[in-house]
């Protein structure tokens, strides 16, 4: 027999576990399970991907902030339930030699062209750390930590960490952090270049929003193209890359935003970009 009261309560909880708002060209995605340290359930994984894609496809959105409610940014995957492990098991049964990860949050986060900012209101561990590292910019509370707890749990950084971390800080430091399951305080993260800014814990949201609005004030097509070119550059030779950059410039030269950018410069005024 189904416990309707329990099911309804769980559904209500899941419904509000992820929050999504858009204001002043900035989308904010919030992990909203403070009582569970903002750990991510299987349903939340799908919802997070949907929110990222919705923001990326919304012409009104020019920057995305990812943050958490309470004292944690995200303490990783919620493995207490069976939805995540069952979902992976189902994928394995359907196709034993392949795993479709195209719509999982780390892949979506990497592939979207809209700039992303991780507002680390609190600590991030495991999957949460990988998601933070997957954002373009990180702003961290001085009381927060990054915990690479993977090897201490018998797993690897499964969400992009083994790809991202060596590129951010070099092989040796990344090896030390991953192999030892190290926890980094905010000052260490800033010193290594893992975060752009460390601020007082009650200023993280405001600082992230300030940066997001600054990004949103730029020409959005040029910002998105710049991010796309930076991503492509990681797998290209210099000669191939500058060729692709030139091809990106051609349509930008034809855009209304380019004309507005030039006109505002000559007229010594703030530009009013429309994303066209």
Radius of gyration: 20 Å
By DSSP, the count of extended strands is 10
Write down the overall geometry: globular
SSE class: alpha/beta
Given as residue ranges, the uncertain stretches (5+ residues, pLDDT < 50) are 1-12
Looking at the overall shape, the CATH architecture of the largest domain is Alpha-Beta Complex
- What is the percentage of strand-forming residues? 15-25%
The CATH superfamily label of the largest domain reads 2-enoyl-CoA Hydratase, Chain A, domain 1
The CATH topology of the largest domain is what?
Answer: 2-enoyl-CoA Hydratase, Chain A, domain 1
CATH class of the largest domain: Alpha Beta
Q: From N to C, what is the helix and strand string?
A: HEEHEEHHEEHEEHHEHEHHHH
The biggest sheet, with number of strands, parallel, antiparallel or mixed sense and barrel status, is:
6 strands, mixed
Mean pLDDT: 88
Q: What separation lies between the terminal Cα atoms? A: 56 Å
* Main sheet: strand order: 1-2-3-5-7-10
Number of domains: 2
The number of helical elements comes to 12
Can you walk through the features of this model?
This protein is α/β, with parallel strands linked by helices and 276 residues long. The chain folds into 2 domains: 4-216, 2-enoyl-CoA Hydratase, Chain A, domain 1; 220-266. The chain contains 12 helices and 10 strands. The protein has helices at residues 4-15, 42-57, 83-94, 105-111, 127-134, 161-169, 171-180, 186-192, 204-216, 220-233, 238-253, 256-266, and strands spanning 18-23, 26-31, 63-68, 72-74, 116-120, 123-125, 137-141, 145-147, 183-185, 197-199. A 6-stranded mixed beta sheet has the order 1-2-3-5-7-10, sandwiched between helices. A 4-stranded mixed beta sheet has the order 4-6-8-9. A hairpin with a 2-residue loop joins β1 (18-23) and β2. α6 packs across α7 (171-180) and α10 packs antiparallel against α11 (238-253). It starts with a helix and ends in a 10-residue tail after the last helix. 33% of the residues are buried. The model is unreliable at 1-12 (pLDDT under 50).
């Amino acid at each position: 027999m189904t416990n309707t009261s329990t099911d309804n309560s769980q559904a209500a909880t899941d419904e509000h576990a992820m929050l999504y708002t858009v204001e002043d060209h900035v989308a904010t995605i919030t992990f909203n399970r403070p009582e569970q340290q903002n750990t991510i359930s299987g349903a939340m994984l799908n919802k997070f991907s949907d929110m990222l894609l919705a923001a990326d496809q919304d012409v009104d959105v020019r920057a995305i902030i990812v943050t958490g409610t309470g004292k944690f940014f995200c303490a990783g995957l919620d493995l207490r339930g069976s939805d995540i492990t069952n979902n992976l098991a189902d994928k394995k049964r359907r196709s034993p030699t392949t795993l479709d990860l195209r719509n999982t949050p780390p892949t979506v986060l990497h592939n979207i062209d809209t700039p992303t900012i991780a507002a680390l209101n609190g600590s991030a561990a495991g999957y949460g750390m990988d998601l933070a590292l997957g954002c373009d910019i990180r702003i961290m509370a001085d009381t927060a930590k990054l915990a690479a707890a993977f090897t201490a749990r018998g797993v690897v950084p499964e969400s992009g960490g083994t790809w991202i971390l060596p590129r951010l800080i070099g092989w040796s430091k990344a090896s030390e952090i991953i192999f030892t399951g190290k926890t980094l305080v905010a000052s260490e993260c800033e010193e290594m270049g893992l975060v752009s800014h460390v601020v007082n814990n009650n200023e993280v949201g405001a600082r992230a929003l300030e940066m997001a609005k600054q990004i949103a004030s730029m020409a959005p097509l040029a910002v998105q193209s710049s991010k796309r070119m930076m991503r492509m550059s990681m797998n290209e030779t210099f000669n191939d890359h500058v060729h692709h950059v030139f091809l990106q410039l051609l349509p930008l030269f034809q855009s209304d935003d380019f004309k507005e950018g030039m006109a505002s410069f000559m007229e010594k005024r703030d530009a009013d970009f429309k994303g066209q």
